[in-house]
Amino acid sequence: MSPSPVGRPLRPRGKLLQEDARRHHRALLLQELFRGGPASRADLARSTGLTRVTVSDLVAELAGEGLLEELGAPAETRVGKPPTLVGVLSDATHIVAIDLSPDDRMRGAIVNLGGEVKARHELALAGATGVDAVALLHRLATELIALTDRPILGVGVGSPGVVDAAGTVVDAPNLGWSDEPLADGLRKALGLPVYVANDANTAVLGEHTFGEGNTDGGLMLLRVGIGVGAGLVLGGALLHGHRAAAGEIGHVVVDPDGERCACGRVGCLETLLAAPRLRQAMAADEAGADAVLRRAGEQLGAVLAPVVGTLNLHEVVLAGPAELLDGTLREAVDATIRARTMPVSGDHLVVRTSTLGDDVVLSGAAVLVLAGELGVS
Asked: Which contacts of 176-179 are long-range, i.e. CB under 8 A and separated by 24 or more positions?
C-alpha cells in the first residue's frame, strides 16, 4: 500500500535543547511525510529547512528502522534524473489504543501509523472500579498486544477524569480512581512506552489529526460517555489549563436542586448529559424521549455559549453515542448557542458530531503515542 498523507500537526511549543536536536530533526522530517505524503529528499530539505546531507542521513536511519521506504520516481517527472520518493510505512509498527470512556466496557484497538484500525477488542466493565478496573485495563492491553505480530510503538489510553502530564489519573469518580498512576503501572507491566490523557483531550487530538474539520479556528470537542468532558485545540495547540483540568465542563453545576453527581456536588452538567443518565431519563419517559434530548441540548448550549463567545470558537464537536447526540440534541445545542451569542461569534460556528464516530478516542490515543514517540501529530 502506498503511503499517504495523514493528519494535521499541532504547533510545536518550547525551546529546542541542543541535545534534542537530532530527535527534533527526525520529528520535522516525519511530520512532513505524515502531513504531505511521499516526497523526495530535495523536497524534504526545502520544506524542513534541513540540509540535504542531514535529510539523507535521517532517511537512511529511518529506513533502517523500517519506518520509511523508497517508492521510486513520481508518475510525472521533469527532464533529467527523476527524484526518488520516500514515504512512511504505515504498518511498520503498531499502536495499542484504549478508550475508557464508555459506561459499560473498555474498548481497545490495534492502530497503524496512518490511524487505520487493524484489530479490535473490548472487555465488559461489569461495574469494576478501583483496583478491579485497573486490573481489567491491564488485561485488555495484554490481550490487544497479542492481536498483532508487528512491533508495538507504544500504548495510548484515553481515560475519564483529570489526568496529569505524567499519566496519573488525579480524579476519575466514575471509575473510583484517585491519584492512580495508570501510565506508570502499565509501563512497568508491559515494558512499553505508555501515554495516558483525559478522554476528551484525547478525542480532540484524534479529531484534529485524523478528522475532517477546519483547524484554522478554535476547536472544542465535547465527549459524552460515562462522564462528560471537553477538549480544546486553540491556535494549533492543545489547551491543558491549570493543573491539567481544562475542559472539565461536566462538573459545572447547572441545577442546584438536581441529582447528586459522582464528584460529590449536586446538579452537575454530567448528571443530565452523561450517556447513562440520558438513557435513564429517556426510558422513564418514552413518549417524551425527544423532549428529554431537546432539554439536555438546550442546557448544554447554555453552558457552552459563554465559552464560544469568549474564545470565538469555529467548531464545537459532539462525540459519543450517535443515537443520543446527533439530531435533536445537537440541533438544540446549535440553536441555543446562536441565540445567546453575538452574530460575530455564532454566525459561522459549526456544531457537528465527530467525523470519526465511536473511534474518536481510539484515534486520539494513537496520536498520543505518535506525538510522544515520533514527534508527529
From this structure: 176/129, 176/130, 176/133, 177/129, 177/130, 177/133, 177/134
